[in-house]
Design goal:
By secondary structure, the chain is α+β, with helices and mostly antiparallel strands. It folds into 2 domains: 132 residues, Nucleic acid-binding proteins (OB fold (Dihydrolipoamide Acetyltransferase, E2P), Beta Barrel), CATH 2.40.50; 319 residues, BirA Bifunctional Protein, domain 2. 34% of the residues lie in helices and 24% in strands. It has 15 helices and 18 strands. Helix 11 runs parallel beside helix 12. The two termini are 13 Å apart.
Length: 485
């Protein structure tokens, strides 16, 4: 930012104050939004009534005794005309107003000789004096890092980025409406937990001063919601932030929004049927139709989604049965693929690592990926046909997981054994293995009804927009910028 440009604006700020004008007043005069004004322009201009508008100045065209400004509010833009003979305090406005300032203008509506809808200003008032000039309107913000760091400028200069946020609001609104319509109760559960559960990831840790106790930021919504099933609720959901201390890439963030629902007396088959209908409703509301783009490919969400078995795809791609394979065989296969398993990785982590390398990138059109090995999902019920597999499904498309659900494990003895296996992996160095939650197991011991659960994060929305997930977040967390003194 050029210092001389900032200094020039500070001089104008002082000039306003010297004239007895507050450059940041409390009250605003506004009778109509610009969008409403444009829509009813003919009627309003014929009435000769004065109109008061507000907005930010985006363009300035000075022709001596006449200055043309383009102002914008969230609903639209309009040209406003300051004339030396008609506009009160014309000279002061001309000398102090800049692109980026917020102003309130009052006057009459008319069309110019060129037919452009305009407001001829009788009175004007500064609402906010901007100290730093906006980016050039034609070039905008070009660097991705700058866009994300100064996200407010990205929204201001790039309408398509702003539109993404409107679509995201529709995305979550539609999910919420579909669940409420289906009889689910929306709830809120704690963000701080004694034991983080419901996912395999490294948590964030914090300290509670009043209780003098360390807590974890939740990594999932799962365990508290399932306790509500124990407490007699049958259909519950939550849309909330979760926090995972893992890497950043196109699909992953450390804090993000997720929805999870839990449905008593149900299983993963009924859950899949419900979720497919819900996704199609959401996608159509957000996108306008059921065809989206992912890179150079068209994704058809409208067809019936097939069910494909995890183990069969794994065997076909790797010529290894993931259920029968030993840990050593899986390590060798991972190394053949150029993968580097982390210290303490168990069989489930190795299977998943290989699958993500050899199979998932090829799953482009929507499908249900079902029945993985039990080592992969410690919280799902075993299948009746094979106790080595679990009744879990993932919605896969665009080479990614875009939602996960399963028939919930409600056997406290089996759950304890699986948690204990996870704790052994943690002891061996796997920081992402799940922790044993005595509190949750105790709840299961009182009895939880058979149930299905499902979760989806804002990754789905990012894929629908064909953008990296952090480009669909309002203010993504970033490393602090080093500022020169």
């Amino acid at each position: 930012m050029r210092k001389d440009l900032v200094d020039e604006r500070l001089k104008k700020l002082s000039k306003l104050k010297e004239a007895g004008i507050n450059p940041y007043p409390i009250k605003t005069t506004r009778s109509l939004e610009i969008g409403v004004t444009r829509k009813n322009f003919s009627k309003l201009s014929k009435s000769n009534k004065k109109v008061s508008l507000v907005g930010r100045i985006f363009n300035v065209r000075d022709q001596g005794g006449v200055v043309f400004y383009t102002i914008k509010d969230e609903t639209g833009s309009l040209q406003v005309i300051f004339k030396k003979e008609n506009t009160k305090n014309f000279k002061l406005h001309k000398e102090t107003l800049d692109r980026g300032d917020f102003i309130s203008v009052t006057g009459s509506l008319s069309k110019t000789q060129r037919g452009e809808e305009s407001l001829e200003v009788k009175e004007a008032r500064i609402l906010t004096k901007s100290i730093k000039p906006l980016p050039n309107e034609w070039f905008g913000l070009e660097e991705t890092e700058t866009k994300l760091r100064q996200r407010y400028l990205d929204f201001l200069m790039n309408p398509e980025t702003k539109e993404i946020l409107h679509k995201k609001a529709v995305f979550w609104k539609t999910i919420r409406e579909e669940l409420i319509k289906a009889g689910f109760l929306e709830v809120e559960t704690p963000v701080l937990e004694n034991v983080p559960g419901g996912a395999e990831t490294e948590p964030f840790k914090t300290h509670h001063n009043a209780l003098n106790t360390d807590f974890f930021l939740r990594i999932s919504l799962e365990l508290p919601l399932k306790k509500l099933l124990v407490g007699g609720f049958e259909k519950v959901f939550e849309i909330g932030r979760i926090f995972r201390n893992e890497g950043i890439d196109r699909e992953h963030l450390q804090d993000y929004t997720q929805m999870e629902f839990y449905w008593a007396y149900n299983d993963y088959n009924n859950c899949m049927e419900f979720v497919e209908k819900m996704y199609k409703t959401v996608i159509k509301k957000v996108n306008g139709n059921l065809i989206t783009k992912w890179g150079d490919k068209k994704i058809n969400w409208g067809k019936k989604w097939p069910k494909v078995r995890y183990t069969e795809l794994f065997k076909k791609a790797n010529r290894i049965d993931p259920v029968k394979a030993s840990k050593e065989e899986l390590i060798r296969k991972a190394e053949e693929l150029g993968l580097k398993p982390e210290k303490g990785s168990g069989k489930g982590r190795l299977i998943d690592l290989i699958f993500k390398k050899t199979v998932r990138p090829n799953l482009v059109q929507p499908a249900f990926l079902i029945d993985p090995p039990v080592e992969i999902e410690p919280l799902a019920k075993r299948t009746d046909r094979d106790p080595n597999l679990v009744e879990r499904f993932q919605i896969v498309a665009c080479g990614s997981e875009l939602g996960k659900g399963f028939s919930e494990l409600n056997d406290p003895i089996d759950q304890r054994k699986r948690f204990e296996e996870q704790m052994k992996l943690r002891a061996a160095g796997d920081k992402e293995a799940q922790m044993l939650s005595e509190d949750f197991i105790e709840a299961l011991e009182y009895g939880m009804p058979p149930a299905a659960g499902f979760g989806v994060s804002e990754r789905l929305f990012a894929v629908l927009m064909d953008r990296p997930v952090r480009e669909t977040v309002i203010f993504p967390l970033m490393r602090p910028e080093r500022r020169s003194k």
